[in-house]
Design goal:
Layout: H1 9-34, H2 36-56, H3 66-97, H4 108-126, H5 130-141, H6 146-153, H7 157-178
Helix pairs in contact: 1-2, 1-3, 2-3, 5-7, 6-7
């Protein structure tokens, strides 16, 4: 397995060991939810997220069992499937609710406006405190549940909810300061 990010040999060894030991279980889990090809993609996405977390917190792998990785892959796969369903529903509702309006794929203006809004939100999130930014990115960009975020960060679900609420308040304040609310 080859990683394209600079990591220490020790971390690479640990990740390779986890990958070799649990890959088949993880692939099976993801494939049951997403199908074979997309299941493999989901497993790789999870490993890239694990590498990112290790870079931020070198002790991340300490005390993690195989079941932990299975749960992460399962939840990532379910979230990926749910996001795809939400996108499909949103496109269907656009067509149903507004016969004149074209779907995002055939309406470059709408697609551009959505991309611009997403980029503005990402810029605003980057301006938040580290704690708020971290949970909002995990929740709304990565699609993790509050339970998963609590497990990843080693904090309670209540703390995750509080950080999300504070982050949303910080976002509202930033939007008000910019006159965009």
């Amino acid at each position: 397995m080859i990683f394209m990010v600079p990591i220490t040999e020790e971390v690479n060894s640990a990740i390779s060991e986890i990958y070799n030991r649990y890959h088949n279980r993880l692939l099976y889990t993801a494939s049951q939810i997403l199908g074979n090809e997309r299941g493999e993609e989901a497993v790789h996405e999870v490993f890239l997220n694990i590498i990112d977390r290790i870079e931020k917190n070198p002790d991340f792998l300490r005390d993690k069992s195989g079941q932990y990785f299975v749960i992460i892959v399962k939840n990532h796969s379910i979230n990926k499937l749910n996001r795809e369903k939400r996108e499909q529903i949103s496109l269907d509702e656009t067509t149903i609710n507004d016969d004149i309006d074209e779907s995002l794929e055939t309406n470059p203006e709408r697609l551009l406006l959505k991309k611009e809004a997403d980029e503005r939100l990402a810029v605003l999130i980057r301006q938040l405190s580290v704690k708020a930014r971290q949970v909002l990115e995990y929740r709304f960009i990565e699609g993790y549940s509050n339970i998963e975020i609590a497990e990843i960060l080693g904090i309670s679900q209540t703390a995750v909810s509080s950080r999300i609420d504070r982050g949303k308040k910080q976002l509202r304040k930033l939007l008000e300061e910019r006159g965009e609310r």
